[in-house]
Amino acid sequence: MSQPTGPRVIVIGAGGVGVVTALSLCVKGSSNVSLAIRSDYELVLKQGYEINSCDYGPLKGFRPHQVYRTVEEASKSGQFFDYIVVTTKNIPDGPTRSRVPEVIRPLVESNHKLSDGQNTNVLLIQNGIDIEKDVWNAFNKEDYHMCVLSGIQLIGSTKTSPGVISHVGRDHLIVGAFEEGNTDAIEAAKRFVELYHNEGKNHVEFDPCVRFSRWKKLLYNAAINTTTALVSLDVPRCLEFGVGKKSTEENIFKPAMQEIIMIAASEGIMLDESLATFFTEITRHIMFKPSMCIDHEKGQLMELEVILGNPLKIAKSKGIETPVLSMLYYLLVLVQGRLKEKNGLLRFDESKAELIDD
Predict the structure, then answer these.
(1) Within this chain, domains 8-208 and 213-342 share the same CATH topology
(2) Domain residue spans in the chain?
(3) What are phi and psi of 81, to 5 degrees?
């Protein structure tokens, strides 16, 4: 593949979302695209990705312009990356090394050394609310010339086996600045929209009020994504298996979404209550397991804190009652604990029937 001029973009996270993100940038051809791959590195280096994409058709042998085994390897390449695009899961209660600030640290530091006044634009294409705060707490944005951008992606894309991607839902990406008054961040977000948009293929838009869009997507994630993870069922089965085929919708999904609407309203974000029906109906006849459900089934940690923990903290600070969301959260904390124990992150002393404090 020829090496285009233009901004250098590195995508961190080579799952279904990250690979399609790299693909879309490469198809546009206006940026130099790198991908940090990890587990599939040797396979992709040898034969590329096999992608069956609803946007771009069947592809074999796809590779972006550069592939790196790790973020650390990319940081030693001597390249300044204008955009660091993070598509990994955001799990602040996971291992320290997998938390977003630590994942991007090598690149932020190498950019800082190489910078000649350029901004480092960190684009978080991730779920949840208040996810930018961990990055700002880890790096002084003035010292590092850093803009933190928000990416909200609606896409059905999954890595089904090593080097194989199934992309079944049209890519709809919303990009904005977490700081609505930061002109540098706004311009960087608008520029990324230009780099990513492929006419007739994907849908990309700049969002001047990105927090509104994050709360809107949280309606789905906090109610539906969490429930499917708790019971290990796809959405249609969650709905059909309910009492009279109604209890899941009427007693879990919609009440949980109503609580999100109230929390958002406490910040001045007004979400239309009809969205609760909209999100339920668009998933009723699609055989699809949301991300948290898939992570649970794979034995991987879930994005619990950014999807439920953070909005519940806001609710508590505002005195808002959240009985449904809280019950989902407390039950999923137990599930997350089991996953942590399975992955060696927690130790339980059965002779004392208690956790071992490290």
Answers:
(1) no
(2) 8-208, 213-342
(3) -105, 120
Rounded Cα distance, 352 and 358, in Å? 15
Q: Map 56-69 to HEC letters.
A: CEEEEEECCCEEEC
Listed residue (150, 146, 127) closest to 138, CA to CA: 146
Q: Which two tokens stand for residue 327?
A: 């019950």
Q: Residue 124's closest CA among 197, 198, 214?
A: 214
Domain 8-208 part of CATH 3.40.50.720: yes
Span 259-295, pLDDT tens digits = 999 999 999 999 999 999 999 998 888 887 888 999 9
pTM: 0.93
Cα distance between residue 33 and residue 76, in whole Å? 16
pLDDT tens column, 208-241: 999 999 999 999 999 999 999 999 999 999 999 9
> 170 near 202, Cβ under 8 Å?
yes
DSSP one-letter code for 3: -
As given in the structure block, the two tokens for residue 124 are 């978080």
Topology of domain 213-342 in CATH is N-(1-d-carboxylethyl)-l-norvaline Dehydrogenase; domain 2 (1.10.1040)
pLDDT for residue 2 is more than 70: no
Taking residue 82's Cβ as centre, other Cβ atoms within 10 Å add up to 21
Residue at 183: amino acid letter: T
How far is 13 from 124, CA to CA, in rounded Å? 11
Q: What is the DSSP letter of 119?
A: -
- 3-state secondary structure (DSSP) of residue 321: coil
